[in-house]
Design brief:
This protein has 382 residues and is an all-alpha fold. It contains 22 helices and no strands.
Amino acid sequence: MTMRMPVSFLLLLALAAGPLAAQPKPGPPSPEVQKTIQSAFAKAQAGDVAGGIALLEPLKNSPGAHPAALSLLGTLYLQAGRPADALALLGPIADTGAAGPLILHNAARAALAVGEAARGEAYLRRAAAKAPDSLAARDLGLLLIGDGRLSESYALLRPWALAHPDDPDARLAAAFAAVELQRAPEGEELLKGLPQDNPRVQLLHARLLGLENAPQAAVALLEPMLQNGPPELLPEVRRNLARLYMGTGRSQKAAELLRGKTGDDPSLALLLGRAQYQTGDSAAAVESMAPFAKAALADPEPADPSDRAAVAELELEYGQALLALSKWTDAMAALDLSTRLNPRSAQGWQLLSRAQLGAGQRDAAEKSMAKVKELKPKKPGG
């Protein structure tokens, strides 16, 4: 969802190029170079990007090539789908303290296009700091939301979306972040003006209805999407419908909805397992979660906090279902991992204590129960 840099910015970007590090600040381009820059810009503006590149390339390797020519050539490379060539020219300029926000933004786009995510993010951050209301801030917000950094992303995207109502991609992304952060009124505000027949807008509206304690209205909005929604949205439609069904006491319907539809998504398998456990079918719950829970037990512990939380939740639900089947040893392994990843979960320690007691490990069970008591809120004056 990165917006293409309008050609009308190209000349401004070129003329704003700063000096390279450890070089004296250059004066304006010579009349001959200035004429070449203007001719290349005119060709690009007319749609002949290749022609603009052809005019500028002879200057690339000439001694003392002017940064204005190099930055315009780098930008035209980017327009032509040659991000590696663009980065080779724009990167050295962007790596100096003199680079302006436009050069930094285009260097970021080139870096991201060749897979240098950290470098691209660094350029975007510098560009957004120099121009908080720019496309760079918008693109940084979209990059962060893709990485799951919702709060930081939302702080960038909401102001942009409200100031630019003609940018539906940014507005929809900001609305998504608002919903994820459970800011229902702000989500409603951001969805206003977006096409109501857009399935993604409908999905977000349904999630907002769920946040606003209107589950039946949310279900009424989502159920038709099972038949008419775009295939790529169906996993999210099922996920949200299943949560709504479970929240209104219809766990069996949630299980029927998800059975055979979880694919390789551990979060959907967890949701299915939870629904099956709530219906009393612990064996089916174990079967649904086992491929993912066993893989997590065999893998190194995740370092990312969100991954740790997700695995802790999966192992807790898996261990709980195993407990119901009196599979004490397997339950202990799952719940031990869950409590290591989330040691603040009183439920995890309580379930682990039950598994240890069932396996005859009374001392270990008492230690786990002591953890439960530590985590219980203390009564005032207690």
